[in-house]
Design brief:
Elements: E1 20-27, E2 30-33, E3 47-55, E4 61-69, H1 75-91, E5 97-102, H2 108-112, H3 128-136, E6 142-147, E7 153-157, E8 169-173, E9 177-182, H4 188-205, E10 211-216, H5 224-231, E11 257-262, E12 265-268, E13 284-288, E14 292-297, H6 303-319, E15 326-331, H7 337-341, H8 354-368, E16 395-402, E17 405-408, E18 416-418, E19 422-431, E20 434-443, H9 449-465, E21 471-476, H10 484-488, E22 490-494, H11 500-508, E23 521-530, E24 533-539, E25 551-556, E26 559-564, H12 570-583, E27 590-593, H13 599-605, E28 625-632, E29 635-641, E30 654-658, E31 663-667, H14 673-676, H15 679-689, E32 702-706, H16 712-715, H17 731-741, H18 789-795, H19 831-843, H20 876-879, H21 883-887, H22 890-900, H23 911-914, H24 936-943, H25 947-951, H26 955-964
């Protein structure tokens, strides 16, 4: 870049090095910094330069420069602001986008910096501040017109009846009261946005203490507020219809024209279509689009050439008498999405690494020329892998789609997916305001379209049956969001499929069926971040499928290998050990470290060949963008909302939040019913359009969220108040109650209750117990399966919550709704409660270590004896334990229970010798009472409760616990 650093104003040193706003005002043709306490206060006789610096997730900065021209500013000040803007861009390394802002016709991006609005004051640099301070002592009645559905344009108009019309919103600010007049043709959203201006005036001009009245166009004197309002105008009289309609400061669109600036001369370029190849890096160009004029500056142009390009754009506006058109100046390599969309087949935008280099060169040149210019700074990089914002102790139900029907999967099968199948899952978990529900579809890579459509239809019916209070998500294999894996915890994805649709497709197309076989050769890549988030994915059985950053499991029938990549972590190795318990639960694996493999290992993989060592990179979350949507006749139109907040989500509309790694479709409670039904289609259309031109995948995870049921992984992008999304009325009525009352919004409905599945009739009561335990890894140790997460969940229904198993980590503290507490914690729960609790536990599939086939206990089907039958409930006084029982030691309880069961006193065996699969089983024991031979501490370790508490349970509950613990 041929730039003389002497031409850069030193006032810009250090600018743009931190997130936020920086403002300069033109005073005596010089840029002077504006105090932060006056940001947002503009005077009609002045010109300003505004720099918005945004820290991105990748650690870099994005810069937007705006120069604002008041309606009474001088031509010299306006020209100085334009030139200084180019100098500021040069100081930033030539990477900023520059916008020309004219009072009354500002861009929505500019207005979003000063929400809810800017109201310029009369005056200028010489007398503006002093003049304003005098007027502030005595309140002046003022009338403002407000326009805009998403961003409010405010303009002061004469206080006269002739200023009013039926199309706009008007705000009359008097000494004691603020009136909002809603034109009959205005929308609810426009009225709601105008109320934000009312709140601003109330806080700014009245210290938050004044009355607020809403006046509807057409209401007569019968309404007290309307009568008072019209009385200020001399009485009520009908308003005339407008003879013309302003286009909100926008000129009508016209055909784009490309002009080249060469040595100060502007010449049009004749071309049928606009292509990137037309732009030369050594020249500047103007792209005239009617309402906007883009000044494109090549990276090899001089600073003086860039200033002339800005002047040429200004001259083009003056010649065409288009004062309301915007001028946007861009540097090569930092074009906006809107600009790139004007061209056919614009090449994919490369990462702008050169920006930091350019800025560094600017800093070095300035220092050599005597300026104290700070070195370029970078924002702190944001962690690339955000933690899943979802509770993993909830209730999971899974169905596999067969043709047009769905088949419920038992908890031992619900974490085993096939690439040729489609699945539906329903997950209920504790949220901040009660239970939340997520219903999703998962499409395997080789699943057929008919079953994908059937899964979508079935999931829609489930959402409808829950009155749209659940979140819907569509997930494709290989594109799962970060919230997906913690729900399943130990997911295994097999090749092939088991559904009727897949089998039919394979048969009709004469394709080889590669469905996984336990007795065949199979290779699994193990990945994940911890015990609550691990996956084993079957890959091609070939050496090229290996990767040094992962661990793998290879088996051929009864032969099992665990391959440890040299770049894998100890956590990866532990996860591989855990996944062996799912894939081959009863077999010992041979450990192989990368570089020391057996010949048999390579023989199973075919031919030894090269493989990768790079970690597989999933789609990373980027800075979110919010879009307001209109959808009609299959055509989707979107409009970006800049610097968005929760208040931008209107209950009558549909919005899309794009985070690149996933897309959320937010549906307001009062959105049109027909459009609401198209929410998923709207999301698919959005992915198809690729609004941000990021080559986004059509298989990106897609969420549909209904207002009032927003999960934490959505609300984390906002400063969220859940009471606002649960208020009564439309957008205008909600905000009016807030402005008037000045209190926290009143909720319109109670907290969400526990969701009951309409398909199973079972209550989805989540369990709060710990789902997994830490497990050390040693290559030489024999694998011993510990207490499974499913058993933890089951035992938690019976054990005393105050007596936690010390070998298990304490549960994570979460904000949960209060629970009823029994007066006697040692007393077992009532029969109905116990039945419901244990049923919910077994219906809530969580087991990761349960074998596929478990033989039932011989006692399970026998009639109960009198001693084993549950005793009838007694009152609290009778059930209170005595002092002797309270101080009894565990050892004494162990002896007492052993004698009662007919077991020889003091006869204790380790758990490994009591298992049916033990290599050294204990002899001369009663096989129907294995648990009685455990020591007190080991019994509590395995069952999560004392033997005394276990003995009080009904026999059928004891049997279920035994089965879960694999004692039989």
């Amino acid at each position: 870049m041929a730039v003389s650093m002497r031409e850069v104003d030193p006032v810009f040193q250090g600018a743009g090095q931190k997130d936020g706003l920086e403002i300069w005002r033109i005073e005596k043709l010089q840029a002077v910094p504006v105090p932060k306490e006056t940001y947002g206060r503009f005077f009609t006789g002045d010109s300003y330069i505004i720099l918005k610096t945004t820290a991105l997730k990748n650690g870099s900065f994005r810069h937007d420069i705006h120069y604002w021209l008041g309606k009474d500013t001088s031509q010299d000040e306006a020209g100085t602001a334009a030139i200084k803007t180019v100098e500021l861009d040069a100081a930033l390394g030539g990477r900023a986008v520059q916008y020309r802002e004219v009072q009354g016709n500002e861009t929505e991006k500019f207005l979003s910096y000063f929400k809810p609005c800017i109201i310029p004051e009369e005056g200028g640099v010489a007398s503006g501040f002093r003049h304003a301070e005098v007027n502030e002592r005595e309140h002046k009645t003022r009338l403002f017109v407000c326009r805009g559905k998403h961003t409010v344009h405010v303009k002061e108009v004469p206080f006269a009846r002739s200023s009013l019309n039926h199309d706009d919103i008007f705000i009359l600010d008097t000494k004691s009261k603020i009136f909002q007049f809603n034109g009959s043709n205005s929308s609810i959203q426009e009225r709601a946005k105008a109320l934000e201006v009312v709140q601003y005036l109330k806080d700014t001009n009245h210290e938050g203490k004044c009355e607020v009245a809403a006046v509807e166009d057409g209401k007569l004197m019968a309404d007290a507020d309307a009568g008072e309002f019209w009385g200020l105008f001399g009485g009520f009289a009908p308003l005339p219809r407008k003879t013309f309609s302003e286009l909100n400061g926008k000129d009508s669109a016209s055909t784009s024209k490309l002009l080249c600036i060469n040595k100060g001369q502007v010449a049009p370029i004749n071309c049928e279509t606009l292509t990137r190849e037309l732009l030369d890096s050594t020249k500047c160009y103007l792209l005239d689009c009617g309402s906007e004029i883009y000044a494109w500056m090549g990276r090899e142009t001089t600073l003086e050439e860039r200033k002339r390009a800005g002047s040429a754009a200004e001259e083009l506006l003056r010649e065409g008498n288009r004062p309301k058109s915007h001028i946007i100046r861009l540097m090569e390599g930092f074009e906006t999405v809107v600009f790139r969309s004007k061209f056919d087949k614009w090449p994919k935008k490369a990462d702008a690494v050169v920006s930091d280099e350019s800025r560094g060169k600017v800093a070095a040149l300035l220092k050599r020329q005597g300026f104290n210019f700070k070195s370029p700074a970078k924002a702190a990089p944001v962690k690339q892998e955000p933690q899943p914002q979802i509770d993993c102790t909830g209730n999971l139900q899974v169905w596999r789609v067969n043709g047009s029907e769905k088949t419920f999967l038992s908890f031992s099968e619900q974490c085993k997916f096939y690439s040729g199948d489609c699945y539906i899952f329903q997950y209920t978990y504790p949220g901040e305001n009660g239970d939340e529900c997520l219903i999703g579809t998962w499409f395997g890579k080789k699943s057929v379209q008919e079953e994908r459509s059937a899964a979508t239809s079935l999931a829609d019916k489930m959402i409808e049956s829950l009155k749209f209070q659940a979140v819907l998500v569509r997930v494709y294999e290989g594109k799962e969001p970060i919230e997906f894996f913690p729900i399943f915890q130990n997911l295994v994805i097999y090749k092939g499929g088991t559904s009727t649709g897949y089998k039919k497709f394979v048969s009709e197309n004469d394709i080889e069926d590669d469905t996984y076989s336990e007795s065949g050769v199979a290779l699994f890549r193990v990945q994940g971040s911890g015990p609550e988030n691990m996956q084993a994915i079957q890959v091609d059985t070939a050496a090229s499928s290996l990767n040094s950053s992962y661990c793998y499991i290879l088996h051929d029938g009864d032969t099992v290998f665990t391959w440890i990549g040299n770049l894998s972590s100890s956590m990866d190795q532990e996860l591989a050990e855990r996944q062996l318990d799912v894939i081959k639960p009863n077999m010992q694996s041979r450990l192989l470290k990368e570089g020391s493999e057996y010949d048999q290992f390579w023989k199973l993989l075919g031919v030894k060949s090269e493989y990768s060592s790079q970690k597989i990179v999933r789609d990373q979350e980027s800075d979110p963008h919010l879009f307001a949507c209109t959808f009609s006749k299959g055509v989707l139109k979107v409009r970006e909302i800049f610097n968005f907040t929760q208040d931008d989500l209107m209950t009558e509309d549909i919005f899309i939040l794009d985070c690149h790694s996933c897309v959320f479709v937010w549906v307001g409670q009062r959105a049109d019913t027909k459009i609401r039904a198209q929410a998923l289609n709207i999301g698919e259309k959005f992915l198809e359009l690729d609004i941000l031109m990021e080559n986004v995948s059509r298989e990106t995870p897609l969420y549909v969220i209904t207002e009032g049921s927003e999960p934490q992984y959505f609300t984390r992008f906002f400063t969220w108040d859940s009471a606002k999304s649960a208020m009564h009325g439309n957008s205008f009525e909600r905000k009016l109650s807030i402005v008037r009352d000045g209190v926290k919004p009143r909720a319109d409905k109670p907290k969400r209750r526990t969701t009951t599945s309409a398909h199973t009739g079972r209550s989805s009561v989540p369990d709060k117990s710990q789902r997994s335990r830490s497990m050390s890894f040693s290559p030489d140790r024999v694998r011993v399966r510990g207490r499974s997460p499913a058993f933890n969940a089951l035992a938690a229904n019976f054990e005393n919550p105050s007596a936690r198993n010390l070998s298990t980590p304490p549960p994570v503290v979460r904000k949960q709704p209060p629970k009823p507490v029994s007066p006697d914690s040692s007393k077992p729960p009532p029969r109905t409660t116990s039945i419901a609790a244990i049923s919910a536990s077994f219906e809530r599939p969580k087991a990761t270590l349960i074998p596929k086939s478990i033989k039932a206990s011989p006692d399970a089907n026998k009639p109960q004896t009198e001693a084993s039958k549950p005793k009838p409930e007694t009152n609290a006084k009778e059930s209170n334990p005595t002092k002797d029982s309270q101080v009894a030691t565990p050892a004494a309880q162990d002896v007492k229970e052993s004698q009662a069961d007919g077991v020889e006193e003091g006869l204790v065996y380790p758990y490994d010798r009591l298992r049916t699969s033990s290599t050294n089983p204990a002899t001369d024991i009663d096989v129907t009472k294995r648990e009685t031979y455990l020591s007190s501490s080991e019994f509590r370790e395995r069952f999560g409760m004392t033997k005394e508490a276990f003995a009080k349970l009904p026999k059928w509950k004891q049997n279920r616990l035994k089965i879960a613990l694999q004692l039989f």
